[in-house]
Design brief:
Blueprint lengths: L13 E7 L2 H7 L3 H10 L4 E7 L2 H11 L7 E5 L6 H7 L3 E6 L10 E5 L12 E7 L18 H12 E12 L14 H7 L4 E11 L2 E5 L1 H5 L9 E8 L3
Parallel strand pairs: 3-4, 3-6, 4-5, 6-7
Antiparallel strand pairs: 1-2, 7-10, 8-9, 8-10
């Protein structure tokens, strides 16, 4: 029987942070959002949860407000499996190709969901008017979502995406920012690494946000640069990049 997806499987602007009475329980439930949610309901003393705001509270409005292409334009969303953004974009009238290494839990909804690795893109050059890479690049090449480990894969992916955009096409990029660290799940970018990743692009917009207490606020690059975003994102860089003619 096919199980309907649970909303806990999407990266919403608010999510639950879980704590476990025994560490082994957390290890066993890692990556099993639906089971974890059910266990929380039947065993509240063993699994605790706190509602927190994530970086999506800054990232999604950054994309929605910044899009300048008209409805009907083709948009490529990269790393769509855990994101509701392709559904938002489709609801706004865009023709969305949502790409991930894992299948999207919902079919239809106005977006085309494509199972592919964009290090070997299945699209023709200059196929898209815009692209969104939201909290995705930091996972590329670390072997978390696929077995491949390659330190430069994130930089090569960004270079390859330029060929998929039409001249003057825009790309929205967000990544964890701050002290340059990484764990098995994600890396945090500093200015040097981000400049390498965006080499060859024209940088039109550059914004930063940091977590402050329970909320997120806009910040300067200097504020974000001293933040630790490993193991949990506490600062983000948000860029609008453009492919030059």
């Amino acid at each position: 029987m096919t199980r309907l997806p649970d909303i806990t499987e999407f990266a919403w602007p608010a999510r639950f942070r879980y704590s476990y009475r025994w560490r082994l329980v957390g290890w066993l439930l890692e990556g099993h959002a639906y089971v974890r949610e059910m266990m929380t309901r039947v065993w509240p003393r063993g699994i605790g949860r706190t509602l927190v705001l994530t970086e999506r509270i800054s990232e999604i409005p950054f994309v929605i407000r910044g899009l300048q292409v008209p409805p009907g334009s083709r948009i490529l969303d990269v790393g769509s499996r855990w994101s509701a953004l392709p559904l938002f974009l489709a609801a706004m009238g865009y023709r969305v190709a949502a790409v991930d290494l894992a299948p999207f839990p919902i079919q239809g909804g106005g977006a085309d969901f494509v199972l592919a690795d964009l290090r070997r893109p299945p699209f023709r050059n200059e196929s898209f008017d815009a692209a969104t890479v939201i909290s995705t690049l930091e996972h590329v090449g670390l072997g978390w979502y696929d077995p491949r480990r390659a330190a430069e894969d994130d930089i090569q992916l960004m270079a390859g995406l330029r060929s998929l955009l039409r001249p003057n096409g825009t790309l929205f990029l967000t990544v964890p920012y701050g002290v340059p660290e990484e764990d098995r799940h994600q890396r945090a970018y500093n200015r040097e690494r981000l400049q390498r990743a965006t080499a060859g692009w024209v940088r039109d917009v550059e914004r930063y946000a940091v977590r402050q207490g329970k909320a997120w606020r806009e910040a300067t690059e200097a504020e974000a640069a001293v933040t630790h975003s490993i193991p949990e994102t506490r600062a983000v860089a948000m860029l609008v990049l453009r492919r030059a003619r």
